[in-house]
Specification:
Length: about 260
Amino acid sequence: MLQKIWAQPLVQNAATCVIILVAGVLAVRLAVALVQKALEKSHLERAAHRLITSLVKVVLYLLVGLSAASALHIDVTGVVALASVLTLALSLALQNMVSNVIGGFTILYTRPFHSGDFVEIAGQSGTVQEINTTYTMLSTPDNKLVSIPNSAVVAAQIVNYTASGTRRVDVNVSASYDCPVQKVLDALVIAGTSDNVLLDPAPAAVVLSYGDSAIAYSLRVWVNTPDYWDVQFALNQRVKQIFDEQGIEMTYPHLNVHLN
């Protein structure tokens, strides 16, 4: 009889624990689904979606586990205290990882760039492929994948070439002193009026400096950011072609020696 009386509360507690676990798992799934829907309507990066949903899952499942343990009359105070000590120890042991995670949230909050932007971070240029928990992944123009720790990204100077939608292409060349300046400037403008070059602002040519052997000029045109490299390479070829057609000498450093 005593065993039956003693067993009844144990069975009831176990049943309550199972109910809490089942209901808790369903509630967590529902909450995560609602969070995901809310994130879909927000303007946060996809990487932020994964970080936030993962954090929500960990916190909610932890609460469900503690509730289930309480239903079994397990003292969770010691568990919470132990978890706090372990969390502190892990944070000290994994300082770099923690700083990278915090850096990831900082990037996603401040949004200095987005996935698909072409950026320069600490001297490394590339297209942003992914912003994950600890690293920012860049794909370089020659198809290399570079992983930069988020803590280093936050501390570095960031140049975002995609943010404004347009970029200026500068082609610097030199021409002989014997050629009239205006002729060279006109030839550069003709070279700059080509495919994928924006007409507003219009292509422009300027004199940069006067060197020992030649005058330095610069052709400046504006393009849509995706067309930058194609226009850059095309203009390098087109300038030489126009100079040859108009008889403009593209000089190089040289020394004239006169003997008496």
